[in-house]
Amino acid sequence: MLVRKLTWPLAFLMALALVFTLFPVFWIVMTAIKPPTDWNAAPAIWIPHEPTLVNFRTLFDPNAIREYGVGGVSQAATASVLGSIFASVTATFFSILIGLFAAIGLSRYATMSKATPLVILSGRMFPPAAIAVPFVIIFSATNVIDTYSGLIAIYVAVTLPFSTWMLKSFVDDLPREIEEAAMIDGRSRLMAHLTVTIPLIRGGLFATTMLIFILNWSEFMFALVLSYTNVTTIPVQLAKYVTATAGTLYGVQAALAVLAMLPLVIGGFMIQSHLARGMTFGAVKR
Amino acid sequence: MTSSADAALTRLSRDGQTETEDRMLGAHAPARPGAPMRGNLGLARFFAVPGQIVSVLVLVMPLLVALYMSFTDWTPTRGSLLDASFVGFENYSELLIYDSRFLEAVTRTVLISVVCLAFEFTLGLGLAVLFLREFRGKAILFSAFLTPMMILPVVVGYTFWMLFQSNGPINQVIALVAGEGAMPEWFRSAPLAIATVIVTEVWHWTPLFFLILLSGLNAVPENPVRAAVILGASPRQVFWRVVLPMLKPVIIVAFVIRGMEVIKLFDEVFMLTRGGPGTATETISLYIYKLAFNDFQLAYGAAAAFLVLIGTLVIINFMLLPVRDQLLEARR
Amino acid sequence: MSTPKLELVSLHKEFADGSVAAVDGIDLTVAAGETVALLGSSGCGKSTTLNMIVGLEEPTSGDIRIDGRSVIGVPPGRRNVGLVFQDYAVFTSMSVRQNLAFGLAVRGIGRGEITRAVGEVAELLGMSDRLDARAKDLGGSELQRVAIGRTLVTKPDILLLDEPLSNLEAAARLAMRKELRRLQKEAGLTIIYVTHDQVEALSLADRIAVMSAGKIRQVERASAICEWPGHIFVASFMGSPPMNLVRGALRHDGTGLRFVSDGFSLALPEHAAIGANDAAGPVILGIRPEAIRLAPASATTLAARVRLVEPRGPDAVVTLDCARQPLKAVVPAHGRPEEGAEVNIAVDPMTLVLFSGRTDLRLPLRGKEAA
Q1: Is residue C58 less than 8 Å (CB to CB) from chain A?
Q2: A131, B62: Cβ pair inside 8 Å?
Q3: What is the pLDDT of residue B4?
């Protein structure tokens, strides 16, 4: 009685929303498989007649595109892909490791001030451009600018509040009695946490890891200002494409964009049920 | 009965009572309020220290450096930061009184944010309400509607940059409907460029509102809704008078979370317009970025950042005011 | 006789999967001003019945008539039936006043009339001074008052209550019981309520409908239902402790009918007459615990052994072993036997109840009922 059916006008509205939602994704994917002749066609070609993966190959081999008689791809995107993977994976690992410890500490041992969540939240409000300024100065002075260690350190610090808070929410969901029971069995507190707490929250641990990875993989500004020649990530590479060769290399650029979003879309769907919790600092459960 | 089982029972009954609120507000109440595990300060430190070190080294210290810097006239050409001269609040007064570009960026960012949030909320809520209905393929459609928020901002910016090209698909559709003459040059006109930024942002983040609001709607207890129906309320009245008020805390959480992010708007704009034409789409973050890394006005940029931080804190606190007690209460 | 307020006519409800009928053919007639309790354990279909009366669920078949008119297809808000939920479902974001006014406000009633109606109901419920309190600050019995008041404001023909007292603490429960009885009289309401608690049912209702497995087993005046249960389920459900039920058969002896079961034997009332068909089949004898007396040995008494004595204030429940047949008896506390004692018991034959072992229905003992 209370749950009503979707009427046709409403279904139409929803279909409209679906088109609006999926069209950009459709467009970028289609562009990524367009052969060079279709890139700049006017009027634009929506679905390529002869789809190709050459754009993806060109990302790793600038000469691949020559089979279509197109030159001018000056550099490969290989470094940016590897750089993104290395920086994101390493930073995610450390953020989760440290965050897990902090989460257990906060959940089990600390009497937190009421304001703690607000303090953590306010850390998210600071414009990254502003944090980037002192980083550039400090990193220049200590010679870690344009190195992966510098970038990773920032990523760990910036995502730490997220990983801590989200993991804490999962530890909080566990009754303490479970660990206390393990300690009665004769295990030390530390062992109780390592052998009981952590395995029991592995679902949440996985979800948090995915979320932190998504944050690191998506990060743009720090990579932009802290990288010159040694360090590069996919977002930085994409930004370079837009300025340097605007309008001429749509297919290759789109291929890189698709490559960049692929792991996130897959990972995002895997943790879909935890997404609300993760994106709201645990303020919305489910 | 042992005391620990006793405690577990007490807790269970308490959890049962506040379950709905907990789910809505979140509030992962610590398993036993106000009573940390007995003793063992060493272990507590052991767990907390790595996080604290990282936070201090990589967040607090740079912030302090930036804060100090914002009171100097330092630029990279002037050698060490320690040699820079202290200028007091000069940077701040300059920004607030004379820097019309900064003030415009602030106004612009706030306006863009308000428009974006209004659209995202309305569309997200509308979609969430549709998802309360019964239809087939709900699970797949749910995932499909979440897709945009899973895509990294730079790619979103890049995609829309392509869509809005003068020979892009959007103009193609416009030409089809209104003729070739109607095709606008999206990035050459100030209001149109702002429109592209808003459309991009709304596309990207409406799914988050949808997700949060749907979670909230699903957590709304059924009986008050049924009671309202029995009392003769129409579906519309049930929604506006009963459901929406119960959803208020969740709505505010959604606005706070998104508000914090949209005010920092950078990646998408950088890809779409770089702030152009002129400074027509320059947001606060973009302006600070340009100050610091194009013009090397690092000290001045830092001052701007702190002004923004203070402004954001004040706004968010006002937004949180109506639900703060509830949030904190539930957390305890 | 005037039209009954509410009629349920062979009401059926099956849920989507069609596996089990939640409500399996219910007939019930409720007169105006009457209070009827639907009594049964959870899952017996009583809440589904309530939901169908109010219109939250539509029956699969059968009819619901209010004042003689079918309300099938009429939306919940138009049936003029009020429902008070077990958890009250008060609108927590509103004040007491807004809660009470809700039903009229959504119908677009004028401000003046709403104020008057809300004032009246608040007066009736003794909440006039709490009108501006926020609903989320209220305690249990206050919440219930608001829930009832919110419904009364709309002047419902029928008031449905779902477990009205079960969420209240003991003291509040007594007060609320009194309150409900007063409302019943003053507002002249027709009330149907659902409960699993027979004390609650007995203390509030004029009539009780005992339900199990989607069927009404018996509808009877509250005062009579314990004494003359019409169905074996009712006998096993009502009373504390419930009626003793013994399986056995009937035999004729010189003077009349006798109930016999494996060494246990009891004479039925002198004029008892059972149809030959029923008398031949298996029967179940019901002996009320209150009808068993300890007595000096005589020809009509039975020898028993006391197994267990559970004192409960003014009386005690005694579990007896009578020819290997366990029986519960309620005896005055001062005369209660010791555990393990050998006693003699007497049962007044006029209080015995007999059920058919085949239909589970009560067999009228014609002799007595004619008298």
Answers
A1: yes
A2: yes
A3: 38
Per-residue HEC secondary structure of B183-220 comes to CCCCCCCHHHHHHHHHHHHHHHHHHHHHHHHHHHHHHC
With CA atoms as reference, the chain A residue closest to C59 would be: A1
Question: Which residues of chain B are within 8 Å of residue C82 when distances are taken between CB atoms?
Answer: 230-231
User: Which overall architecture, per CATH, does domain C232-363 show?
Assistant: Beta Barrel (2.40)
How many Cβ atoms are within 10 Å of C301's Cβ, its own excluded? 16
Contact A122 B313 (CB under 8 A): yes
Closest to A281 in 3D by CA, of A147, A161, A191, A148: A161
ipTM over 0.85: yes
DSSP state of B56: I
Contact C147 B227 (CB under 8 A): yes
**HSE of C224 in the Cβ direction (CA atoms, 13 Å)?**
9
Report the C-alpha gap between B279 and B194 in whole angstroms. 11
Residues paired with C344 in a beta bridge: C303
Q: Could you tell me if B17 lies within 8 Å of chain C, comparing CB atoms?
A: no
Among residues A210, A104, A84, the alpha carbon closest in space to that of A159 is found at A210
Cα distance between residue C132 and residue A180, in whole Å = 47
Whether chain C has a CB inside 8 Å of the CB on B232: the answer is yes
Among chain A residues, CA nearest to C76: A1
The pLDDT, as a whole number, for residue B114 is 94
Of A251-260, B148-157, C187-196, the one with minimum mean pLDDT is: C187-196
State which residues form the domain around B121. Answer: 99-296
Is B7 inside any structural domain? no
CA distance C153 to chain B (A): 10
Q: Which fold has domain A81-231+274-279?
A: MetI-like fold (1.10.3720)
> Per-residue pLDDT tens for C297-316?
787 788 888 888 888 888 88
Can you tell me whether residue C27 is helix, strand or coil? strand
**Residues in chain C with pLDDT values less than 70:** 1-2, 16-19, 270-273, 276, 366-371
A169: closest chain B residue by CA: B28
- The residues in A 54-73 lying below 8 A from B, measured between CB atoms, are none
Across the interface, whether the CB atoms of C54 and B230 are under 8 A apart is answered yes
Over residues B97-110, the pLDDT tens digits come to 888 899 999 999 99
Interface contact B231-C154, CB threshold 8 A: yes
Planar angle of CA B209, B211, B214, nearest 5 degrees:
100
- Cβ partners under 8 Å of residue B31, min gap 6: A107, A172, A174, A175, A176, B11
Q: Domain for residue B27, yes or no? A: no
Fold of C6-221: Rossmann fold (3.40.50)
Task: Read off the tokens for B264.
Answer: 């920092």
Domain residue spans of chain C: 6-221, 232-363
Residue bearing tokens 């260690």: A149
The alpha carbon of residue A226 is apart from the nearest alpha carbon of chain C, in Å, by 50
- Does the model's pTM come out above 0.90? no
